[in-house]
Every structure is written in structure tokens, then in C-alpha cells.
Automatic annotation (TrEMBL):
Similarity remark: Belongs to the ACTMAP family.
Keyword Protease: yes
Any one GO MF annotation of this record: aminopeptidase activity
Biased composition range(s): Pro residues: 22-32
Record protein name field: Actin maturation protease
Keywords: Aminopeptidase, Hydrolase, Protease
Source organism (scientific name): Rhizoclosmatium globosum
This protein's record includes keyword Hydrolase: yes
Length: 501
């Protein structure tokens, strides 16, 4: 997984869970600071002491950590948002992606969860000794036949080392020893992806303590499940126990057990109601929608965003936006625009969001409960889709291959996922039919990044061939009233439409 923040990218296990790291991560650099600057001074320098102490205190207060160990990328994301005011995104890390290079090129760092051996080097022991490491540099094998790279940390061109976006090596700082190391990029990737202990699972002397949901999620052939008689607790025991290589800890890390109440309870989902304007309700269609929202989610899919509600109202008021058209929603969450498109005569409406099973099940449930006939007729569908990736499954949801999507909805995805602007635009470019229209509605929730939000349209025009037009703004209540920044900006839903030139 990749956990992207304003100036830091965190690469974690595929299931967002790792074994114990024994100190909290360092604070990220300010936006203007180069990636290498944070390592100019020792990681335990006085300048960081207070910030680290405060960060640890917050993690302990939220029951994310006992002594500085962090088990999940989700908790890191929450800390990045709440403690440093950063934007956090969790997404897949694929070895073919250039996400690591892109982050470093933009002056950031990459935090990766990996399996370590006795020398803190990447290995594959199924998560037995997982730790965190910071990537602060990459390199390629020298090839004098190639030209120049586009960047380095001081902004000067240097000899290109490879025509590939995928590095050969990475420069890392161990999250535990704090020593610099040069590792193979591919070996680090393999080490991260071999981390098998998923969900709320932690190492201790008896194996891996886990709840039933975690055990079901594991479902691996190389483990044996033993239930303790008379209790609901179960233990997952590796068939072949990994060797102990944590002698430098002064104690056996495998004995770490989370204290009772260590983790906060899983946030419960909620039922929310969306009521349509009575003047826009046509006969035979529901006036109210009952939406089951998931609990707290790293992608903020547990909220009904103002931009989505405003776009839904606009669709209801002007049914020609969707009538007889093929509609696609990206980053749907509550997926109100898709639902209103479906009941206002769309040929089909496909609500997509990040392919998290819980999230997609929630959207699918809301489709089936509120619009069973439309689902049965194939006019409303919920799909998991990651921006910038292959669209074959999304296109398969269309009635036929005659044309692509006439309308694409983007509600409050521009400010929340600024690191994904290119992938988002790539998807729009590939999915939009000739003479199709994208509707981009958003609020600049973090006022100081409002210019960055607007840069989405400059990028769309410059690199992807889009034209755009601003529509009248709509005022709504601020979603985060206690946040800093101009309240007027945080109450404004910016409305744009965008099309291919």
C-alpha cells in the first residue's frame, strides 16, 4: 500500500498492518524543505525532541501505540492528518508504479513497512519482524548511452542511469537503528508485500493473537488455527516459526502483547438520510434515500460531502445533465450523484471508489436497498476502481461498447487526493466519450492549499487536453467548522465543468 501525505509518502503492507516498530516516525519536513534536508541532522536532534514527544503522546492517547510501536498505516494516516495537518491517502503500491520516484522528485519522503533480518535488511519472513524505514533517495545502474534525468535534489541535470521509472536501488534510513542503507528496490518491494499478518494481528509468544474477523481475512494454507476451549479467543500459529533475530532489543519482541483497551473500538457505521427537493421528485421515484455509511475510513468515505450533495441537487434540478446518458462517478463514497443520475433517466450509472471491499459493499448495499429495480435492470452498478489503472472492468459495466461515458462526476476528490490529480485526469481522459462532460465540484477544506486545488484545472488543460468553465459557487455549512482558515472559503462549494478540447 502507499500512504501519501503532503510531503511524505508512506508505503505499507498490502493489508495496512505491520509488526512492531519500536519508535515513532520522525515528523515530516516543511513543504519547502528538500527530501534530504531532514537527514542533515541526527534523527534524535533536539529540534525534533518536543515534536516526537507530542506525537507519541497523541498516539498513546488515541490508543494507537503503547511505547512508540505503530502497527497500521491507517493510524499513521490519522496521525499525519491530526498532528501535522497533512493530507493522507492510502493506495496500492505496485512495483511498476513510479509513485516512489514521483514523491522524492516532489521533495517528499517515503515511509515503507518491510520485513527485516538481523541486520535490518529486507527479507521475506511473512511479517515476523516487520519494521518501518524511510526512503530518501533512489538510484539506477549507470548507462552512458542514455541522456539526462529531469531532476535531482539540487535541481541540476545529472547523467541518466536508466530509461525506466523503476529504480534499481533505494537509499533508506532504518526506522529502528536510524542508520543509512542502500537496498535493492525490488527486494524492498517483495519484503513489504510478503507481510502476511493482517487486520488487528500482533506478534507475541503464543503466536498471533487475533479476532475472528482477522482470522477469516488471513485464510492461508501455511497456518494452523487453534481455538482455546471455552473462550472466543483464537491463536494463529505459524507451521514453521521464524528464527528470532531481535537480540538487539534487549528482550524478545515476539512477547509483545497489546494491553487490554490498547486499540479504540472499530468505528460503527451510521444510517443517514438524504431528502430530495420535493419540486424535483418525479412520480414513481423515492423522495428520500436511506444511506448506510461505513465507519471511519482513511479515504474519508464515511462522510456525505457537501460537494456530492450540491452536485446531486443540480442533477435533480436539471435532469438533462444525465437523461439518456452513461454516467461514471469517481471516488463516489456516498455516491449521491450516481444515485440521482440513475433515478433521473440515465442510461446507466456506475458508482466507483477505491477497491476496498467494505467500501464497495456499502455502496452496493445502498444501490440495492434504495433502487432494487434499477440494479436488476443493470442501470445502476457499484464497482471498485483505482484511478489511473486499467478501465476494462469499468467499461464492461456499460450496456455495450458503442460509446464510453457521456458524463463523469468528481465530487470533492480534487482537494482530498491532490497527489492523484494525474491519475484522476488520465482516467477521465480515457473514460470520457466524444463530446462528454466532467462535473468537478469541491470545497477547499484546507484554505492554505486552495491554489493547489485550482491547479487541477491548469494541469487538465496543459497536459490532458481539457477545457473547463467555472459555474456559480454554492454556499454550504463548513464540514469541519473548527478548522483554521477563512470560513467563507470552507463554506463554498466550487462548481466546474470540464470537457475535451
Amino acid at each position: 500500500m502507499v500512504f501519501a501525505v503532503r510531503n511524505v509518502t508512506i508505503v505499507s503492507t498490502p493489508d495496512n498492518v505491520v509488526g512492531p516498530s519500536h519508535r515513532p516516525p520522525p515528523p515530516p519536513p516543511p513543504p519547502t524543505q528538500a527530501a534530504s534536508k531532514i537527514f542533515a541532522d541526527p534523527m534524535n536532534a533536539n529540534a525534533f525532541t518536543q515534536a516526537v514527544d507530542q506525537l507519541l503522546a497523541r498516539a498513546q492517547d488515541r490508543k494507537y501505540s503503547s511505547k512508540g510501536e505503530i502497527f497500521t498505516a491507517q493510524h499513521l494516516a490519522d496521525l499525519a492528518i491530526s498532528h501535522f495537518g497533512l493530507d493522507a491517502i492510502v493506495e496500492d503500491w505496485k512495483i511498476s508504479d513510479s509513485v516512489v520516484v514521483d514523491c522524492l522528485r516532489n521533495g517528499g519522503l517515503v515511509l515503507v513497512a518491510y520485513d527485516k533480518d538481523g541486520n535490518h535488511e529486507p527479507c521475506c519472513k511473512k511479517g515476523a519482524k516487520a519494521h518501518w524505514a524511510l526512503i530518501n533517495g533512489v538510484g539506477w545502474k549507470t548507462d552512458d548511452q542514455l541522456g539526462t534525468v529531469e531532476w535531482n535534489l539540487d535541481g541540476n541535470n545529472v547523467s541518466r542511469t536508466s530509461s525506466s521509472n523503476i529504480p534499481d536501488i533505494v537509499l533508506c534510513t532504518h526506522g529502528k537503528s536510524l542508520h543509512q542503507a542502500v537496498w535493492s528496490y525490488s527486494k524492498l518491494f517483495e519484503s513489504s508485500w510478503n507481510l502476511e499478518f493482517v487486520n488487528d494481528a500482533v506478534l507475541h509468544g503464543a503466536g498471533v493473537g487475533s479476532n475472528q474477523e482477522s482470522l477469516n481475512a488471513m485464510d492461508r494454507d501455511d497456518y494452523e488455527i487453534d481455538a482455546k476451549e471455552g473462550t472466543t479467543e483464537q491463536t494463529l500459529n505459524p507451521v514453521t516459526a521464524p528464527e528470532d533475530d531481535d537480540d538487539d532489543l534487549g528482550y524478545d519482541a515476539a512477547m509483545f502483547v497489546e494491553p487490554e483497551g490498547f486499540r479504540p473500538p472499530t468505528p460503527q457505521g451510521s444510517m443517514q438520510e438524504y431528502e430530495r427537493d420535493p419540486t424535483h421528485v418525479q412520480p414513481g421515484t423515492p423522495s428520500k434515500l436511506d444511506l448506510q455509511m461505513i465507519g471511519h475510513h482513511a479515504l474519508w468515505a464515511h462522510k456525505i460531502w457537501n460537494a456530492g450533495m450540491v452536485l446531486a441537487r443540480h442533477i435533480d434540478a436539471d435532469k438533462n445533465i444525465v437523461n439518456g446518458k452513461r454516467c461514471l462517478e469517481l471516488g463516489g463514497g456516498a455516491s449521491l450523484p450516481s444515485f440521482l443520475a440513475a433515478i433521473n433517466g440515465a442510461e446507466c450509472a456506475v458508482a466507483t471508489d477505491y477497491p476496498d471491499p467494505h467500501l464497495i459493499r456499502s455502496i452496493d448495499r445502498n444501490c440495492r436497498v434504495n433502487f432494487p429495480e434499477l440494479v436488476q435492470e443493470g442501470k445502476l452498478k457499484a464497482l471498485g476502481y483505482q484511478w489511473g489503472q486499467d478501465l476494462s472492468e469499468v467499461f464492461a459495466a456499460l450496456p455495450d461498447a458503442v460509446r464510453k461515458f457521456d458524463v463523469i462526476f468528481l465530487a470533492d476528490v480534487v482537494p482530498v487526493f491532490f497527489t492523484e490529480h494525474r491519475n484522476l485526469l488520465k482516467t477521465c481522459q480515457l473514460a470520457l466519450a466524444e463530446r462528454g462532460m466532467c462535473y468537478v465540484y469541491f470545497t477547499s477544506h484546507v484554505v492554505k492549499f486552495a491554489d493547489r486545488d485550482l491547479s487541477f484545472f491548469q494541469l487538465a488543460e496543459r497536459e490532458f487536453g481539457f477545457a473547463y468553465e467555472q459555474l456559480p459557487d454554492v454556499k454550504a455549512s463548513a464540514m469541519f467548522p473548527d478548522d483554521v482558515g477563512d470560513l467563507k472559503v470552507r463554506e463554498t462549494v466550487n462548481c466546474y465543468k470540464m470537457w475535451m478540447k
